[in-house]
Amino acid sequence: MITPEEIFEMRCGIRLTRPLIHCITNPVSINDCANAVLALGAKPIMAEYEGEMPEITSAAKALSLNLGGISEAKMDAMEAAAETANKHDIPFVIDLVGVGCSSVRREFAKEIIKKYSPSVIKGNQSEIFAICGLEHHAKGIDSEDSTDIKAAAEVVSEAAGRFKTVALISGKTDLISDSKRTIAVENGSELMPYVTGMGCVLGVLTGSFLSVTESSLSVRDPFDSAVSAAVTLGLAGEFAAEEYKKTGSLSRFHGGIIDGLFAMDKKFYTTNSRYHDYET
């Protein structure tokens, strides 16, 4: 299992190499996503025009797709970007936003996964259950499934095996699996659900950590990248919560997450990281 020191090393690798991360993401959270990628040390580009996809995606070190705010034009752009990523062996993550409440998104996501084999699929519990064809409960893009960690761990492992990829369920406890191993990440703050777009931010951070697999500094697999992203965002939430305790300001908490992504040092990682193997 990857250590906190190695996660910090990957973060340092991102800051050293400044990889370009192509993000097609949710318009609600696009600004936060771009700032999160910048704070981590990478360079975001948020291009969405289909005609640009071959040129822009091929120049990136990783691709992050997000089904929020979907449109026909955006779906065409995502498919073109995924096709380009496959052609150039560029790792990518697909964030399954809203597949629990929209059959259009669900069928599109299944097509992208089948045709282009993303490195990581990500969603909340309802979204991962939905993509597996299991009973789920969603209200808009939010999950109303139970917090049954055992059931979620079984399904995240099933999703990874079924789609031959790494699967990530985000929530109070994040779960990451490649079907052979499952990690539970306990980091985070109870304030994070009160700030919109944190799931979207986790998606682009996953893309940023996937870029390290292309770096000579540290060769990692997508499983390590997904774990690193979940731990890093959870720690940033804890970093921001300390500021909230001083001010009681939710807006300061929001900004504090970006501060954490930028400022957290090795000691913060080694002292506060909480994740472990989960036996299903």
Q: Share of helix among residues?
A: 40-55%
Number of strands: 11
Average of the residue pLDDT scores: 92
- Report the structural category: alpha/beta
Backbone shape: globular
Note the run of SSEs as H and E. Answer: HEHEHEHEHEHEEHEEEHHHHE
| DSSP summary: helix tally | 11
- Unreliable spans: 214-218
β-strand percent reads: 5-15%
What is the alpha-carbon Rg in Å? 17 Å
Strand order of the largest sheet: 2-1-3-4-5-8-9-10-11
End-to-end gap: 16 Å
Give the biggest sheet.
9 strands, mixed
Quick summary:
The protein is 51% helix and 14% strand.
Describe it.
The chain is globular. The two termini are 16 Å apart. Helices cover 51% and strands 14% of the residues. The chain contains 11 helices and 11 strands. It is an alpha/beta fold and 280 residues long.
List keywords for this structure.
alpha/beta, 9-stranded mixed sheet, 11 strands
List the helices and strands and how they pair.
Elements: H1 4-17, E1 20-24, H2 30-40, E2 43-45, H3 53-59, E3 62-66, H4 72-87, E4 92-95, H5 103-116, E5 120-123, H6 125-131, E6 138-139, E7 142-143, H7 149-163, E8 166-169, E9 174-177, E10 182-185, H8 198-210, H9 222-247, H10 250-263, H11 266-272, E11 275-277
Parallel strand pairs: 1-2, 1-3, 3-4, 4-5, 5-8
Antiparallel strand pairs: 6-7, 8-9, 9-10, 10-11
Helix pairs in contact: 1-9, 2-8, 2-10, 3-4, 4-5, 6-7, 8-9, 9-10
